[in-house]
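Expect chain and fold; see below:
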Amino acid sequence: MNYGATWTFGALYTSLSGVPYNLPVEDNAVPNSTEYATGLTTLGDILKNDGYHNEFLCGSDSNFAGRKQFLKTHGDYEIYDYYTAIEKKAIMPSYYAWWGFEDQKLYSIAKDELNRLADSDEPFNFTMLTADTHFPDGYRCELCENKYDEFAANVVDCTDRQLTEFISWIKEQPFFEDSVIVVMGDHPRMDTVLVEGAVWDQRRIYNCIINGTVPEQSRMVSRQFSTFDMFPTILASMGYTIEGDRLGLGTNLYSDKQTLAEQMPMHELEQQLSMKSDFYLKEFAPELLDEDLSTITKKIKHVKDKKALKKIRKAKRKQEREKLKEGQDNQQE
């Protein structure tokens, strides 16, 4: 994880583009435009250009945080969200759970969509976003058991079992032979319920690549890396050759090249990434600037400030303060 990737959309943006989210707008604000960060070249762009069909599945409104705009701009993703599920009669119009519909239904829809895509003649990139473990406490569905005292622990256990079953199902399908599975966490929990007393720098995000085309290398087991390193690494796992083993700020983790997190202390890297950059805006999001590329003129649509979003932002600010303090303490030592 790195600056610009400490919340869901930031992590999605960063892992697909190789650069941190550093636009001059709030985390879940949406540019008032049909386009989003038009100067970027992302995973979706590359795959679309190579004949892949991109699809994104989520159990919520895909317009939230600009996800639909971003994915449509970069790779022309087919979007399947809460409203699509209603349209296709996968759920009743009156149904609403958690952010839209829970992961139990998401996995069922995913199986149908994967079979449909596999029956076509074109290669595909299918991306899905689970949400049952989302802050603050997660969503407990009918599959969840009551093994632990903590509500959130039972949700995580349930999520693990559903994901395991889904991956096992994929491995039994004909299309698995030439498919790569990437399991990627977006960010650490925004609370400390299950990680009480854990030092921020010791917390990790789970990432896993299954059936990649690159031979496994022991070097990958203990590497220091950031969210943007997943961009070239995912492409490499699919068989792409990357000149110099770098894309954006990301490094191909299958290579012997050092990542930025291995080249400098994390607090220094975070400080560098958080700096205001005119180059970043002009190169990656020129649609936000006026004609002389000097000032921001496009209005930003803000997400309605619900109680849950307030809690998320509060927790995120606390995380950033803790990271900054730990970095300063380490520097003093």
Confidence is low (pLDDT under 50) at residues 297-309. Strands lie at 30-31, 53-58, 78-80, 124-129, 181-184, 207-210, 246-247, 250-251, 300-301.
